[in-house]
Amino acid sequence: MVMLPFALGMSAARSQVIVERSPVAVTFEAYGNTTVGTTVDSKSASGDSADPIRFDGAARALARISTTQGPDIGLRVVVETTSTERQLAITEASVLLFGSAGRLEIGKRMGLPDVLTGYAPNSFTFTVAEFGPPTGLTLDPGGGLQTQFLPAAARARVEPLAARGVTASLFNDESWKVLYVMPKYKGWLAGVSFSPDADDPRFYQLTQAGLVHESYWQQDIWRWGGTYAHARASTRAAATGVTNLNSISAGTSVTLHDSLDIGVAGSYDGHTTSGSPFNHGSPGTAWGATASLNYNSGPWTLGGYYQLSRAPAAGGRAGNDRLSAVEIGASYRFTTRLRLYGAWFVPHLVNDRHESNPVTGTNNVVTVGFRATL
Fold it and tell me: What is the CATH number of the domain that holds 323?
């Protein structure tokens, strides 16, 4: 959890505006990402073409009331819009208690603890694409932005695999839940959450937990840790062969001289099925691994990642799909609030039953975008 100091009066901090009238302090933030993308080689893909331009924008507010006797009280709300939805929607809303014992949060929120303000990377991830936007849909492994420009049939097969090898499954779940984050102690950070339901209709009673340790040597940082998720399969999903979810991940990253970041991570879901009639009663393992490299020099950020993952085929198909993906990219920061970014994403999808379908193969996706923050 990253907590930025509250300023007196009104001031413009990095990508945020802070208003304080004791005992209340309110932090406002907003961003917009506009990305243009195209599939360069689509000879092996078919389906509806994706929109060539995508916009993701959000406004966030965190109000914090200081108390003298008990924990501070907070309220956090996030409103988002996209070019596909074309309307504003409250995507996060939660009530918080802050104190020396940590942070308790109740509401619609990510299950594995994320930062409350600012745009720092999530503490429980180890492989990232730092050249892309840090919020909204991102260019990170499993970030979802690069796959938006694939044809619909390919996107439906690639996206479930692209989320593996980063964290435990359902990492981005934003259902209603209770969340606790311990105060950081000697480099240790832990968090746990429980939701009676999940965004994924196949599961309910979702429990998520994460544990990370950081060590510092001058300008160098070493981080390691992992995440875990458990959920029960719904009655309807269980009837199609979906089992209870038990997902685990582990990862580590090293930051050298505040400029070079190297990360590796992996996830494993054990025996599961996709819920399709083709795979009913025939479980397969779902796993993934990622490795990323990023370098910062002045206003430039360069980097890329490699991903390998496998899971039972989605979309009512037989066998297991395997994804091998590479992405490289760069960004240039004009100011702390304006950045230009671009990437080349190459996913290669195969099926272990060698089924003849128009999705299996390689699609090259090129993206160029512009990010602006308040």
Answer: 2.40.160
